[in-house]
Amino acid sequence: MQSLPAIPDIFKLKRGSGSPQRFQDRLTIFLFLLPAIILFLLFVIYPIFQSIYYSLFNWKGFGPATDFVGLSNFKNILSDKVFMIAIRNGLFIIAFSLCLQLPLSMLLAVLVGRNMPGRVFFRSIFFLPYVLSEVISALMWLFILNPDPERGFINALLILIPGVKAQAWLGNTSLVMPAIFAALTWKYFGYHMLLFMTGLQNIPAEIEEAARMDGANVFQNFFFITLPLLGGTIRTSVYLSVLGSIQQFILVWIMTKGGPVNASETMATYMYRFGFVRFQLGYGSAVAIYMFLFCLMFSLIYQRLTRQPDYLTGL
Amino acid sequence: MSRKIYVVLSLLLIAAFALAACGSPATEAPAVATEAPAVATEAPATATEAPAMAEKVTINWWHISTAENHKALFQKFADDYMAAHPNVDIQITVLENEAFKTKLTTVMQSGEPPDIFQSWGGGVMNDYANAGLLQDITPALDADGGAWRNTFATGALGVYSYKGKNYGVPWDMGMIGFWYNKDLFAKAGITNPPTTWTEFLADVKALKAAGITPIALGEGDKWPGMHMWAYLVTRLGGKANFEGAYNRTGSFTDAPFIDAGKKLQDLIALEPFQDGFLGATYGDEATAVGNGKAAMELMGQWAPAVEKDNSADKKGIGDKLGFFPFPMVEGGKGDPADAVGGGNGFAIGKNASPEAIDFVKFMTSAENQAALAKIGVAIPVVKGGEAGLSDPLMIELQKTFAAAQYFQLYYDQALPAAMGSVVNDSTQGIFAGTLTPEQAAQAIEDSAKQEFK
Question: Model ipTM?
Answer without folding.
Answer: 0.73
